[in-house]
């Protein structure tokens, strides 16, 4: 589960001209994971030594609450002058806060987030403002992730609100068989190492505002996004595309394997097992082999060996023919089970 929120920080670009290196403005506070956070924005840079002093925008995340050992994901992106989010100036970092306590270390962030030349050229709106959207996400494995006091008004809400709420901070879109889904790079990257490499690494997708996905079912992608943001399957999953439960969870298992979502993969395996019958068991074994679910395969083999009629009915299904064609060696394992 992730708790998090996003908020905008606006700078009047003309007002930054007279600021000195090390001068900063801070954002409004945001309440996430039981803690209060704010962003420090140095329009002429945070440090007075090094490369191109005064020519870069620096951004840092500050933990305002007096807490220790809080693991958080800090994400930020610039908004183009025309209102579209930047795919180039979009970054995220994972760290434990407070950072370098007692050592004088700066809070995590980026000293060279964007050059002032780029700001002026691409990111100043017609009315003279520069907009930075930042987010704080607290993963469930943070020792201080759960703190129960109620958030103050205006703070960030549950991360699921970003997917279904009135939110315009999405910075990437996916086109799946003609359907468009909006999402947040930082949320996806925090949930999946595959998304992290694709959206923040050296792959072409890192600079694309819209990504077209091949060989993906829209209903399964929608359910996968719901799981990433809500840590649960959608209540209407059986109705998303009119699929049978077996078909739906096959598609969703493929998506989970593709994006290395181990929690979703385990959940899909359980759902498939719950729907095993003599008519579906062979298809489920194919899925177990294809997507490396050994425990699911083991349970299906045990199901076949439990009653003779299970195998007799399964042997006449199209799924059994597919199993023999795609994974013929599994038939030897099935014979060993039923001959015990």
From TrEMBL:
InterPro entries: BACK_BPM_SPOP, BPM1-6, BTB/POZ_dom, MATH/TRAF_dom, SKP1/BTB/POZ_sf, TRAF-like. Pathway: Protein modification; protein ubiquitination. Pfam families: BACK_BPM_SPOP, BTB, MATH_2. Residues 170-229 form the BTB domain. One of its GO terms (biological process) is protein ubiquitination. It comes from the Eukaryota. Transmembrane segments: none annotated. PANTHER family: BTB/POZ AND MATH DOMAIN-CONTAINING PROTEIN 1, OS08G0523100 PROTEIN. Belongs to the Tdpoz family. This is BTB domain-containing protein. The lineage of its organism: Eukaryota, Viridiplantae, Streptophyta, Embryophyta, Tracheophyta.
